[in-house]
Amino acid sequence: MATFLCKTEPDDYSYDDLVRDKRTEWDGVSNNAAQMHMRTIAKGDEILIYHTGNEKRIAGLATVTKSAYPDPENPGELASGEPKFVLFDVKPTKAAGNTCTLADVKADSRFADFALVKQARLSVMPVPAKLDKLLRKMAGL
DNA sequence: GCCAACGTTGGC
DNA sequence: GCCAACGTTGGC
User: Fold this and answer.
1) Helix (H) or strand (E) holding A102
2) Lowest CB count within 10 Å: A1, A4, A26, A58, which one?
3) Of A19, A89, A87, A22, nearest to A59 (Cα)?
4) What is the pLDDT of residue A82?
5) From the CA of A49, how many Å to the C1' of B12?
6) Are strands A124-127 and A24-26 parallel, antiparallel or unpaired?
7) What is the pTM of this model?
8) CA–C1' distance A53–C2 (Å)?
9) What φ, ψ does residue A131 adopt, rounded to 5°?
């Protein structure tokens, strides 16, 4: 059981949209490193949904209902023959009870090595267990 | 295979 | 709206 953080532009697709839809296929990720992380996502894993843009905060928690699978629209292909683009399905679990912003995360030195802070433009990243615990506390999840 | 040009993400 | 930090593309 692992936790990942996924970025989304709330104007495009927000946590509230996920609550409304009950479930969704997490697609639209083209970045290679992000796709690599996505391939490791399995049913039962949990996703911290992070809103980019004006909000820059953790919006809520979601649970993976279907492990990573090839994108039926555009699976692509890696040198290994594996599909290049994968999706996973999620359902909403809990909306954030506290506002945990990027500034809050950056202000805490324990997150100094966290990909959200360190690596620009990465939209899907694994969350180490220690940081996961911290983030959930900060976001009221 | 290098690298300049270009496109995109996302914070500011 | 700007631009830094990436990734990708294409000419050579």
Assistant:
1) helix A102-107
2) A1
3) A19
4) 78
5) 22
6) unpaired
7) 0.94
8) 15
9) -70, -35
- Residue A122 Cβ under 7 A from any strand B atom: yes
With b for 16 or more beta-carbon neighbours within 10 A and e for fewer, the A110-141 pattern comes to: ebeebbbeeeeebbbbbbeeebbebbbebbeb
Q: CA A120, C1' C5: Å apart?
A: 6
Give the tokens for residue A47: 């996703």
Q: Which residues, in sequence order, are bridge partners of residue A46?
A: A3, A63
Given a cut of 50, the residues of chain A with pLDDT beneath it are none
pLDDT of residue A79: 67
CB atoms within 10 A of CB A42: 13
End-to-end Cα distance, chain A: 17
Residue bearing tokens 């999840």: A141
